[in-house]
Design brief:
This protein has 17 helices and 17 strands. By secondary structure, the protein is of the alpha+beta class. The radius of gyration is 44 Å and the shape is elongated.
Length: 601
């Protein structure tokens, strides 16, 4: 399957191989990841906008609850106001008596003075001796036939209606409408408390998105855009369909733009109906800024990729040109011209190859001379070549031989019931394999801990009950990137210098903890500890590049690697009490893609 592909790739020129490799390994993955990141940022912006809008609607809902409580409390007080009952139900024979009654009853004006949430209070009665004065109104035929009046008369609860009285004004306002029964007179009337339109609009004026308050019939009673007041759901000018059922988050087309609509409801106490709060934002308005940034970033990314491609093309051209020159020199040697000398300069692999080629040509000439000089020398050369080949083969024993040998030992021990020895041999094989294969690339903290656990299990096999350990790993740190073999030397140091002299009760604790943007790693033992003067010497030795004492090389190497990898702010911190134990701590940046960067974070 792979052989034809490999043969075809071998026929492709190096220049094209490099370009194809760049496109498939660098350009396409970067563009693919960029597309995923773009989609993520767009969705994140929309999610944040929805969350913000939901919080804003909840705040408006709380403000509306507070505002509506004012007319409800007023209506509850007027429901049992005997003075109001007397004013409404008295049969007036003289206009003077009516004027006096109006003058003495100032509760409506007092409520209007105290509460800016309301703009008018009116009471509609069927008492024919009443004269209209914008507070007490006689029910006319138009009022009696109106929908709001019929709703109030036929309901025992409070109703919130967007209404007006054409005898007073053509401007509609959201009003509390409530039937009041006078048991002493066996009569009734309708109380109307109009809410202040300016107060309603002020609740919505600071909202970042278009926000509206609607009554149960779908009429806009207040809005951030005051031109929308009086419009109804389904109105083309409003642009919002009337199929929004109950509170929730809807995605609809509003005025030709895909938008998110957040809907919530306000249902005051003792009410037959409530109000609906709607907040709308166009998706495009939310992602516009992120789209602009993404567009700029994409342009820069493409520019960088194109620049890299151009740079790669120039390098590949230089490489292939020099290789072509070397190939021509080789062709001359192939035709028998052993006086060829390659003049390709440079200290890179091609330059080295050129110099090796010259050496090879000289060697060939020398060898050919030697062939003609003596058969004996030729024989010795052949024997020497065989010995070299044997040594090369011997040096090429694959590390898998060691692993396979350990696995065979483990299986023998397992078959014979030596489970502990089999387990330790398996851990030893795993430890050796990891040490050989890990190289200089970073590993995860979880992978490092698996290596340490294998090492500790082997040491525990050696020390028995004299050694115990605990791994306290914060789940948030498992995938954090870390240089390889950065913790194991600290654990080894704790065993050798801290616990090896203890007869029992030795304990090592390896602990990781996520702290904001860093990960703290501690290696703690309850061993012999370090005297204060010795501890200060150890701390000073960490800063020395040349080793002065062999048993501290591991600590110094770890300290220097941390500083080279992450900067001067990172390194080992050692605290110890003689006879109580030692704690070695260090921190690394909390990132999953941190690479060793030679001192740059």
């Amino acid at each position: 399957m792979w052989k034809p592909l490999i043969e075809r790739m071998n026929n492709v020129k190096i220049k094209n191989k490099l370009i194809f490799a760049y496109i498939f390994i660098v350009a396409l993955p970067v563009l693919g990841i960029g597309g995923v990141v773009v989609d993520y940022f767009r969705q994140s912006a929309l999610d944040n906008a929805i969350e913000q809008t939901t919080n804003n609607v909840e705040r408006v809902k709380n403000q509306m609850d507070t505002m509506l409580r004012v007319p409800i409390d007023i209506s509850n007080k007027l429901l049992f106001d005997s003075r109001l009952s007397d004013v409404v139900n008295t049969r007036y024979t003289k206009v003077y008596d009516l004027v006096v009654a109006y003058h003495n009853y100032q509760e409506f004006q007092e409520y209007l003075r105290l509460y800016s949430e309301i703009s008018a209070i009116r009471f509609y009665t069927t008492n024919n001796t009443i004269q209209n004065n914008l507070e007490f109104m006689k029910v006319s035929n138009e009022v009696r036939d109106s929908k709001w009046y019929q709703t109030a008369i036929n309901s025992r609860k409070i109703n919130w209606i967007y209404r007006n009285d054409i005898e007073i004004s053509e401007t509609k306002k959201l009003s509390l409408v409530r039937k009041i029964n006078f048991t002493d007179y066996t009569t009734n009337g309708v109380l109307v408390i109009e809410l202040s339109q300016s107060y309603l609009n002020s609740i919505l004026s600071a909202e970042p998105f278009e926000t509206m308050i609607l009554d149960h019939s779908g009429y806009v009673v207040a809005a951030k855009d005051v031109t929308l007041i009086g419009k109804q759901l389904g109105d083309p000018e409003l642009g919002i369909s009337s199929d929004l059922q109950g509170k929730g988050i809807y995605e609809r087309d509003v005025k030709g733009q895909l938008s998110n609509i957040v809907v919530d409801e306000v249902m005051p106490d003792s009410s037959d109906n409530g109000l609906k709060i709607i907040s709308v934002f166009a998706n495009e308005s939310i992602v516009r800024d992120s789209n602009r940034i993404i567009l700029i970033g994409t342009g820069l990314l493409i520019l960088i990729l194109c620049t890299g491609l151009l740079f790669l093309y120039l390098i590949s051209h230089l490489i292939t040109r020099r290789l072509s020159g070397l190939s021509r020199q080789m062709n001359k040697v192939g035709t028998g011209d052993l006086k060829v000398v390659s003049h390709i300069a440079g200290a890179d692999e091609i330059g080295q190859l050129s110099r090796k080629f010259n050496d090879m040509v000289v060697s060939i000439r020398t060898l050919m001379d030697q062939v003609y000089e003596s058969n004996e020398r030729n024989t010795r050369l052949e024997v020497s070549q065989k010995e070299i080949s044997f040594k090369m083969l011997a040096s090429q024993i694959n590390p898998h031989f060691l692993f396979n040998a350990l696995e065979s030992i483990r299986m023998k021990a397992h078959i014979r019931g030596e489970q502990e020895i089999a387990y330790i041999v398996r851990l030893l094989g795993k430890l050796i394999r990891n040490n050989l294969e890990i190289g200089m690339k970073n590993t995860t903290l979880q992978g490092e801990m698996e290596l340490i656990k294998s090492y500790l299990e082997i040491q525990k096999f050696r020390f028995g009950d004299r050694l115990n350990y605990e791994l306290l790993i914060d789940p948030q740190t498992k995938e954090i990137s870390i240089p390889p073999l950065i913790i194991q030397p600290l654990v080894e140091n704790a065993i050798i210098h801290g616990l090896e002299s203890r007869e029992n009760g030795g304990l090592i604790i390896i602990r990781t903890l996520r702290i904001e943007q860093d990960v703290m790693i501690d290696v703690i033992d309850n061993g012999a500890g370090i005297a204060e003067e010795r501890l200060q010497w150890v701390k000073n030795s960490l800063q020395v590049n040349e080793s002065q004492e062999g048993d501290r090389i591991g600590l110094r190497n770890v300290h220097q690697r941390l500083i080279l990898s992450y900067g001067a702010a990172y390194g080992l911190h050692i605290s110890s009490m003689l006879g109580e134990g030692t704690q070695i701590s260090f921190k690394i940046p909390a990132t999953t893609d941190q690479l060793m960067s030679g001192g740059n974070k």
